[in-house]
Amino acid sequence: MRRDVFQAIADPTRRDILNMITHKSLNLNAIAENFDMSRPAISQHIKFLQECGLVVINQQGRERYCELQPKKLIEVQDWLEPFREMWEGRFNQLDSLLMKMKNKKDKP
C-alpha cells in the first residue's frame, strides 16, 4: 500500500504527534503518554509517519527517538499554495472595498 503525506496528516492523532516533535525529538514513551490509547497503537501511527517520510527514528541506547522531517511537508505546502493565493486575492479585494466604503463615509 502506497502511503503519502496527505494520508499522514489526515489523521488527528498523527497531526498531534507531528506537532509534538516539531521542536524536539521525543522517545516513543514520551509521545504515548500524551494519548489515551495503547503504546502499540501509537507505534502504528509513528510507523505510518515513518513510511510517509515525515518521521525518522533514531536509536539512542535502548530508546527510540522520533524526529520530524519537515521537508516532506513541502508537498502539502505546494498543493495548498494556489488556495492561499486565491484567498489572499479575495481578502485584498475585500480590503479595497472596505477602504472605498470608509472613504465615502468620511467625505462630507
TrEMBL record:
Q: Which residues form the HTH arsR-type domain?
A: 1-88
UniProt source species: Agaribacillus aureus
- Output this protein's name: Metalloregulator ArsR/SmtB family transcription factor
Task: Tell me which NCBIfam families the record gives.
Answer: HTH_metalloreg
Q: Which domain of life is it from?
A: Bacteria
